[in-house]
Amino acid sequence: MTRLSVPMTAAILLLPGAGYLALLFGLPLVLAVLASFGVLTRGYDGGPTLAFYAELFGTRAYVDGLVFSTYLALVPTAVSLMISVPLAVLLAQSFPGRRLFTALNKVPLVVPGIVAAFIVMTLFDRGGTAARVLAPLGLDLPKLVRDDWAIGAVMATVWKTVPFMTLIVGGAMASINRDVVLAARTLGAGPVATFWQIQIPLALPGITAATLLSFIGGMGAFAVPNLLGPVYPLPLSVHMYVNAFERANWGLVAAMGTTLSAISCVVLLAYYRVTRGLRAAGGAR
């Protein structure tokens, strides 16, 4: 019987998972990148070209949409992270009503994004519930729906994202050895110092995963910014559907999708670099 080498054994063991990822995620991504350069592009018979990227970056509305998409990914992710990390620590403690609070915190997970957008619209649009409640008090609600800063879209996204991030961060926090935390407290570290110097560094892998998944979801958001965002600029995902997909401009669709994916990859690499530096600094201390 032939004995397999260690690399060959490892390759065979990894084949089911790696093959699945390569077939269903890697191959479509490669085809999209090729299509963005005019290779195997549906409805385009010319050779390799940069025309689709020239159209993308040469159109002011598309460039503004790309910037706006990045904004809609960064801001809700940052706000959600600031809420989710302390919330995950809180939910790890025992307090009256903890089980009910935990259950209520998970409700947004089962609510579709478009429903969350309608909730925000019903509550905070001009003439909405909040405006009618404040009107007898002589208070005027600022414009939160279709405003220039897309505050309504940020609110709806944060409402949906916080429970998702809390679950991931909470799992990372729960995996920390309790003895490490107790040892830090025994040696004189207060709750705040223990949180920043022990729990946060040890939970960074989970925090990183939650942040990146939320950012990537925000980059491709469609329903929420389309309903609650400003008339201009539109996120690139909306342009991708309205001005490219519906017009069967498949090369432009691929160029927009590849650009959104490239930005997500850049953020991924930058975030890993920062967190690696933080872990190294923590280890040095």
Main traits of this protein?
285 residues; mainly alpha; MetI-like fold; 2 domains; flat
Outline:
This protein is mainly alpha-helical and 285 residues long. The chain has helices at 6-36, 51-58, 60-91, 98-105, 113-124, 129-134, 151-174, 178-186, 191-202, 204-219, 223-228, 236-245, 250-284.
Walk me through this protein's architecture.
With 285 residues, the protein is mainly alpha-helical. It has two domains: 1-36, no CATH class; 50-284, Orthogonal Bundle (MetI-like fold), CATH 1.10.3720.10. Helices cover 73% and strands 0% of the residues. It is flat and about 70 Å long. The model has no long low-confidence stretch (mean pLDDT 84).
Any idea what the CATH superfamily of the largest domain is called?
Answer: MetI-like
Instruction: Give start-end ranges of low-pLDDT stretches.
Output: none
Tally of domains? 2
Report the CATH topology name of the largest domain: MetI-like fold
Measured on Cα atoms, how large is the radius of gyration?
23 Å
Give the number of helices: 13
Q: How does CATH name the architecture of the largest domain? A: Orthogonal Bundle
| Portion in strands | under 5%
- Run of helices and strands: HHHHHHHHHHHHH
Main pleated sheet: none
Number of DSSP E strands: 0
Which class of the largest domain in CATH terms? Mainly Alpha
Could you give the topology of this structure?
Elements: H1 6-36, H2 51-58, H3 60-91, H4 98-105, H5 113-124, H6 129-134, H7 151-174, H8 178-186, H9 191-202, H10 204-219, H11 223-228, H12 236-245, H13 250-284
Helix pairs in contact: 1-13, 2-13, 3-7, 3-10, 5-7, 7-10, 8-9, 10-13, 12-13
